[in-house]
Amino acid sequence: ADSNEDGRITREEVRELIMLSASANKLAKLKEQAEEYASLIMEELDPENYGYIELWQLETLLLQRDNYMNYSRPLSTSSVNNWNHHNNNRGTGGGTGTPSETTLVPKPLHKFVRKITHKLKYMVLENWQRAWVMSVWILIMAGLFGWKFYQYRHRAAFQVMGYCFATAKGAAETLKFNMALILLPVCRNMLTWLRSTRARLFVPFDDNINFHKVIASAIAVGIVVHTGNHLICDFPRLVHSSATKFTLIAEEFKGKKPTFKFLFTGIECITGFTMLALMAIAFLLATGRFRKNLVKLPPPLNRMTGFNAFWYSHHLFAIVYILLIIHGQSTFFVHAWYQKTTWMYICIPLLLYAGERSLRTRRSRQFSVKIFRVLVLPGNVFSLTMSKPQGFKYKSGQYIFLQCPTISSFEWHPFSITSAPGDDHLSVHIRTVGDWTRELMRVFTETCSSPDNIGLAKFGQPGRIDQRGLPRLCVDGPYGAPAQDYRNYDVLLLVGLGIGATPFISILRDLLNNVRIEEDQTDSSVTDMSRSEETSLNSVNSMTTATTSSSLKKKPQKTTSAHFYWVTREPGSFEWFKGAMNEVAEMDQKGVIEMHNYLTSVYEEGDARSTLLTMVSALNHAKNGVDILSGTRVRTHFARPNWREVFTKIASKHPYATVGVFYCGMPVLAKELRKLSLEKSQTTTTRFEFHKEYF
User: Fold this and answer.
1) Where does the sequence pass through the membrane (predicted)?
2) How far apart are CA 278 and CA 274, in angstroms?
């Protein structure tokens, strides 16, 4: 830093230091503002305007970095005193000595046994909902298989075809059940309704897609068992059976022993082979590598990968279900209509799913929206602000499906709603990660040729309506998501990775809107009480009436505070919700929300390569109230959060509270957050309940 080794550092040398630090951390925007931040440091350390600072002054400033690396900071100035009081009274952050920590005395067990015991306990606590659902499902399949196996074990055909025949029929019964059941986890409207009932306490509705995949795997196994036993075992036994044995079932084939040609050209095999081919295509294109376009095929086979191929191939199941009914009606050895049970299994789920699709179609026509504003953001992200259809009601944390007929009349894609329920518009933030989203961005940006059409309205307001030539957009939803239940918790811990922050922006705004409404109602109630005291002798009755009427307007919310952690690699990502974070900061007059931005591409706080940036950020935030990286009032931390410390301090700050931990992002972090939620629920007086968003 001191290039001429005279113990003095000039403004230019400070600027060079900032430039070097910005380069080391790949912060191009910071390099452009190096002069401004150099002036900031000189202003702090050179109040007499000597034009230089002593080297020891800069070293002292850098050594004070711990004072700037506070765990949290309030967004509003009115909550600074409360925050400082809490910050001074809490422990060191290690968790020992805090009011919510309970010292556990280990039992005199072997270390290995104790470790296994803890793992089993966490596993049960984490998976009890999944466990009982899976157990019931497996028991039902086992019961159906055993029932049908036993039934055919005592028929004449068993004497000819043996256990292969009974096994094939047992597998067929489980296939009927699973082909019916697999439709229910994708009935989104039904699941959204069920989420609002007490059933959510016992059934893991968040795992609906995972359960759908598990059922599909069971169907694949059932097909192999059913088809394999027919083709490899009982068909050959039937064709090559002796005349004596064949007489036992001769009536079924009108006295003529069947040949392989007869069996393979019958309705049973034709429908079976066709279903097998269609389902093989759909199953293959639904696998992760094909669906995510990770498999690279030469043209024109490359069109068989990606979301489009997955989506369209799944519609082959409409043909599969028709063939399944025909297949079930044409089976051998079953003649009475009430014994042909395939249609009985699938009729109700098919009707539910058909109703679901019909409702989606009707709603998409009804919920055609106008585009208010299109905003192109860094990191291949753009936001759409659109009209709110009449009668459209949703909860924060829910998501909608969007369709653009200009691109495709059949494709629907899910996006989290980033506007609050109280807003008079809808907004979504979309990252271009696939062909449909890239095309949607291209269509809107090309259509909005005028700069006036592309821009950012103030967050929470639609801005000017300009519909000149914009593509039509249809909305389907809203649909339930884990985050919609945030009101059930005293405290929220919201964690978003990258674009995964989208579901939580709506929650933060809704939380503050509700706080503001409650304050307005309280003020109104107090005003009414005061007036009633002046104008009525019966003031007690008047106050009771005023209070009662006020309480009926809106039920007080349970959630009292929220901790929001946004982790991203790209500094430009902060532009996505810059308006949202600034407006939340303006609205948060009681320090209800703690917001933390983490930039993982920068060396961690405490590293020599980022220490100067920490100082500059702290000084600028103290003077101007703005973070140098995000451009908001929310401080940006470097590297990844220490999640154990985060959980420990939340438990310390909120003893005996129930904390809802909501996460949206890559699966890697979900495992750690889930484990910490279980661990801290056991070792502190605070209860953490983990939820992961699925798309």
Assistant:
1) 131-150, 262-288, 309-330
2) 6
Match 């063939």 to its residue by tokens.
323
Helix (H, G, I), strand (E, B) or coil at 397: coil
- Measured CA to CA, the distance from residue 180 to residue 658 in angstroms comes to 38
* Angle at 645 (CA atoms; ends 641, 204), nearest 5 degrees: 80
Helix (H) or strand (E) holding 496: strand 491-497
Task: Tell me which residue of 137, 219, 147 sits closest to 179, measured CA to CA.
Answer: 219
Confidence of residue 521 (pLDDT cuts 50, 70, 90): low
The residue-averaged pLDDT of 258-265 equals 87
Q: What distance in Å separates the CA atoms of residue 666 and residue 610, rounded to the nearest whole number?
A: 26
Which CATH code for domain 367-480?
2.40.30.10
Q: Is 632 helix (H, G, I), strand (E, B) or coil?
A: coil
Work out whether strand 636-638 and strand 593-599 pair parallel, antiparallel, or are unpaired. parallel
**Level-2 CATH architecture, domain 486-524+556-692:** 3-Layer(aba) Sandwich (3.40)
Digit-coded pLDDT (tens) for 411-467: 888 999 988 888 888 889 988 887 888 888 888 877 765 444 444 333 333 333 344
C-alpha to C-alpha distance for 20 and 27, rounded to whole angstroms: 10
> What three-state secondary structure class fits 568?
strand
User: How far apart, in whole angstroms, are the C-alpha atoms of residue 236 and residue 161?
Assistant: 9
- 3-state percent helix, strand, coil for the chain, nearest multiple of 5: 55, 15, 30
Q: Rounded to whole angstroms, how far apart are CA atoms 297 and 26?
A: 36
Which are the contacts of 613, defined by CB distance < 8 A and separation ≥ 6?
18, 21, 22, 25, 27, 30, 602, 628, 638
Q: DSSP 3-state assignment of 313?
A: helix
- DSSP states of 264-281 as a string? HTSHHHHHHHHHHHHHHH
Q: Report whether pLDDT(267) > 80.
A: yes
Per the CB < 8 A criterion, the answer to whether 196 and 152 are in contact is: no
Contact 62, 69 (CB under 8 A): no
* Single-letter amino acid code for the residue at 147: W
- Looking at residue 59, its pLDDT comes to 61
